[in-house]
Amino acid sequence: MKSHQFSRYVRQLKGWRETVFVLALAQRALPNYQLFSEAVQLEGADRVALCLSDFWAAMSERIAENRLIAWLDDVQLRTPLAEDYDYYGVHPACDFCYLIEQALLSQINPEKPRGGDAGERSLQTVMDFLEMSEGEGLSEYKLIKLFDRSPLMQRELEFQKELVYRLRKQPFPSAEFLLQMCEFAADDGVSNIGICLTEDEDESEVEDISISDSCKEGEAE
Q1: What is the rounded distance in angstroms from the CA atom of residue 49 to the CA atom of residue 57?
Q2: Where are the domains of the chain?
Q3: Which of 44, 51, 159, 182 lies deepest, with the highest CB count within 10 Å?
Q4: pLDDT at 216
Q5: Residue range 3-220, CATH number
């Protein structure tokens, strides 16, 4: 699938498909937020992961607007301000919060397209990480080369393409399909910039649940 064709397919996603596309991007970016919140001891950050899993569980039904607004308030209350931290990790954490906000807003105000911007934001998170970690002092030309050959960028693009492919094939958001999408988006606990909180089982106990577990618990609620 060529890039211009893919962009068109993303922007053609409507209704529940667009919401699930953005929600899946947020699910995959969750470890970025969790790592940051652990590092700075961000109060109440676990509420955001709970909103995410509750949102997945409710997507097979009609969600009351007041419930969506309550989740949005929870997320916005726990979104860090980048200027308050002299720490790179705040930026991918903020990008995650942006994605879950856009997923919620796509249900509150479905008339405004959000999928395309969300996909670009997730890609930008990866590019910013690559520039920070490997691109210091590189010219614009060499940065573009870095992005083109990066396995992280290829992985992100393939992930988004697979999301679109699965969503275009699915006729309705069944509970089984949503669980599959949530587990696919969790990507074995590896975020879009390669962060994995479950690599060391002893360390992963800090959060009590893995990302894939949060998908399953959300389905059960």
Answers
A1: 13
A2: 3-220
A3: 182
A4: 47
A5: 1.20.1590.10
Q: Which pair of tokens denotes residue 135?
A: 């691109």
Decide if 68 contacts 108 (C-beta within 8 A).
Answer: yes
On the CB side of 196, how many CA atoms lie within 13 Å of its CA?
Answer: 9
Three-state secondary structure of the chain: CCHHHHHHHHHHCCHHHHHHHHHHHHHHHHHHHHHHHHHHCCCCCHHHHHHHHHHHHHCCCCCCHHHHHHHHHHHHHCCCCHHHCCCCCHHHHHHHHHHHHHHHHHHHCCCCCCHHHHHHHHHHHHHHHHHHHHCCCCCHHHHHHHHHHCHHHHHHHHHHHHHHHHHHHCCCCCHHHHHHHHHHHHHHHECCCCCECCCCHHHHHHHCCCHHHHHHHHHHC
- In whole angstroms, what is the distance from residue 165 CA to residue 160 CA? 9
Tell me the pLDDT tens digit for each residue of 136-194: 889 999 999 999 999 999 999 999 999 999 999 999 999 999 999 999 999 999 999 99
Taking phi over 0 as left and psi of -120 to 50 as alpha, with beta for the rest, 187 belongs to left
